[in-house]
């Protein structure tokens, strides 16, 4: 039960306490605005749906902003082998305020800032969870895929896996960190580089890539970005990237990247959804280097000539999303001002605009939806 301060007390009321009081006095509505689809590739319906009720181990978050991820596009299209539930409220980069919690929740209070992320829940008991490989749990709950996500004004989340966001954080800008930021940060850790080494970001001007560039710079790496167009190059350079290879202007990407990095990057993070880009990365990576696969183009394969693979002693690794520790670390980079989210804010009712831009490859940075409109 929430205890309010005596209004006649002379005790100083903190900003956080005033927020709790304000939230406690605001009734949670029974219905809310959301974007729902009932069939793959069907109408993205901006409509009214019931506000969910948190289970004993869940929190209810009033989502203020939600990032839009390529995974949301795949969920809508249904073009992955593992299909999402239908009907579905997508979204898994939700940042907001806790307005209710289940009876068993002890790590969040009403009024706290919280993030709802892709990895919504895991068993915490299997071999992988116990070793910190929570994303590899065989029975996960995935926000915006197997569980209604953040393209709604109120969303539930398992309290153990929900992200803690420091008070006063810009919720619009932190939203993309909850998936894109965590994902690329984990991929860079998977590349196992040391400061001063080269890392190539394939898809450097997109939502994932623009964050990967910043994390890489903050971690002390030299960054070569691969993407197409003057706008994306300008964004890349503004984020601290060192060398840009434009696939519109360079017919031989492999040679261009090798030349730019003096023999090839020590690591590659593939966040683009181009199969050809993935194949090229195996060719231009430096001997003993590591290629990290993150982007998921449908039906894509990665091929590496065995003789060359062995002689170059290269590594090819997959990187999914981060665990709870990775989440905390990725958010800390943001709150310390080392990483910013290049975002474009649109209304929740305009979600289709973001999907169209992603399909056409014209999105620069990350779309974020404001759930209030």
Description:
It is an enzyme of class 1 (oxidoreductase). It catalyses: a primary alcohol + NAD(+) = an aldehyde + NADH + H(+). Belongs to the zinc-containing alcohol dehydrogenase family. GO terms for molecular function: alcohol dehydrogenase (NAD+) activity; zinc ion binding. Its cofactor is Zn(2+). The chain is an alpha/beta fold. It has two domains: 196 residues, Alpha-Beta Complex (Quinone Oxidoreductase, Chain A, domain 1), CATH 3.90.180.10; 137 residues, Rossmann fold (3-Layer(aba) Sandwich), CATH 3.40.50.720. 28% of the residues lie in helices and 23% in strands. It has twelve helices and 17 strands. Strands 3, 4, 5, 8, 9, 16 and 17 form a seven-stranded mixed beta sheet that branches. The protein has a six-stranded parallel beta sheet with strand order 12-11-10-13-14-15, with helices on both faces. It has a two-stranded antiparallel ribbon with strand order 1-2. The two termini are 32 Å apart. 48% of the residues are buried. The N terminus is likely disordered.
Helix content: 25-40%
Number of domains: 2
Q: In CATH terms, what is the fold-level topology of the largest domain?
A: Quinone Oxidoreductase, Chain A, domain 1
- Please identify the structural class as seen in this structure: alpha/beta
Please report the total strand number as a whole number.
17
As residue ranges, the low-confidence spans are 1-14, 16-25
- What average pLDDT do the residues reach? 90
* Assembly classification: single chain
Beta percentage is 15-25%
Element pattern in H and E: HEEEHEEEHEEEHHEHEHEHEHEHEHEHE
- What's the architecture of the largest domain, going by CATH? Alpha-Beta Complex
The outline comes out as globular
Biggest sheet details: 7 strands, mixed
The name of the CATH superfamily of the largest domain reads: Medium-chain alcohol dehydrogenases, catalytic domain
Top CATH class of the largest domain: Alpha Beta
Calculate Rg over CA atoms: 21 Å
Number of helices: 12
